[in-house]
Amino acid sequence: MEPLAVLALAVAGLGIGTVVIVRRLRDRAFHEVLADVGRENVVRIESVANAFRGRRRGFVRVRGNGCLCLTRTELLFQRWLPRHRLAIPLSHVREVALVDPGRGSATSRFLRLQYDEGGGETETLGFAVPEVSAWHE
Predict the structure, then answer these.
(1) How many CA atoms lie within 13 A of 58 on its CB side?
(2) Quick one: residue 64, left, alpha or beta (phi over 0 = left, psi -120 to 50 = alpha)?
(3) From 50's CA, which of 38, 67, 99, 114 has a CA 20 to 30 Å away?
């Protein structure tokens, strides 16, 4: 077999393996959230969300990919890797806005959420999700 063909097969195998792993991580987070909150309590859920965190300087670093779930009482973000869950009580949410990052940005519109962390601190998170307008309702 030609070396180029072997390389092409190896790259294809790596790509397929990566897709399988990402799907398993996505599905695991989705099912864990559903099991914990109960399907009947879910207002909206998205298995593929990208969270950004930023304090005072905008959104500077990616926080991770995960599952975003809105219930009647809280917003949950279950990160795929490393596994971590962030729960924000809706009573702590101060502002929700749709943000257009402008031209030249790799990110499309996203949801910006400001909430009280406690102790007088306000945190800002951004979530890039499909159908972002539906999350703003």
Answers:
(1) 5
(2) left
(3) 38
Threshold 0.85, pTM exceeds: no
Tokens representing 79?
């990160």
Q: Which of 28, 31, 123, 38 is nearest to 80 (CA)?
A: 28
User: C-alpha angle 78/82/66, rounded to 5°?
Assistant: 30
Contact between 86 and 69 (Cβ < 8 Å): no
Instruction: Give Cβ neighbours of residue 30 (< 8 Å, ≥ 6 apart).
Output: 45, 47, 67
Kindly give the confidence (pLDDT) of every residue in the chain, 137 residues in length, as a single tens digit, with 9 standing for 90 and above.
787 777 777 777 777 878 888 889 899 999 999 999 999 999 999 999 999 876 554 444 557 899 999 999 999 999 998 888 999 999 999 999 998 876 656 567 899 999 998 788 888 899 999 999 999 87
Contact 29, 76 (CB under 8 A): no
